[in-house]
Write a structure and sequence with these properties.
Layout (H helix, E strand, L loop, with lengths): L1 E13 L5 H10 L6 E9 L3 E2 L6 E13 L15 H8 L3 E14 L10 E3 L2
Antiparallel strand pairs: 1-4, 1-5, 2-4, 3-4, 5-6
Length: 123
């Protein structure tokens, strides 16, 4: 398993303008905790109407911890960078798009606790 801590800015689709803070927190609470753990809810913008599809959208900025499955143990940790955005889009309910991500830390989770983990930090 690959563990990624990242800042993510994304757009969620809402059903109503009223109580948008409560609605966003409810949507984020629905995520699969074994795959995405919310560490910090940084900011929630006011909802707007998307002129292209008339959907009510809200921009959200969070810090999350992702637990991504590995394809191969031989693959390097930094080769999973390309899979972060698709992983977020798959596992965030009502996510219209991912605007921006910034990786804080990536590491391989090893089953044997006697082996020290290899970690990659990004600034």
């Amino acid at each position: 398993m690959i563990e990624v801590i990242t800042h993510a800015e994304f757009v969620l689709r809402l059903s109503t303008f009223q109580e948008h803070l409560k609605a966003v927190k409810h949507i984020l609470a629905q995520t699969d905790k074994s795959k995405i753990q919310l560490q910090e809810l940084v900011h929630i913008n006011e909802p707007t109407i998307n002129p292209k599809n008339r959907a009510i959208e809200c921009e959200v900025n969070v810090t999350v911890q992702l637990t991504m499955p590995e394809d191969s143990k031989k693959q390097k940790v930094d080769e999973y960078i390309e899979e972060i955005v698709p992983f977020l889009q798959r596992h965030l309910p009502n996510c219209n798009r991912i605007n921006h991500t910034k990786i804080i830390q990536m590491k391989r989770i090893l089953e044997d606790p006697n082996i020290h983990e290899y970690s990659v930090k990004f600034d």
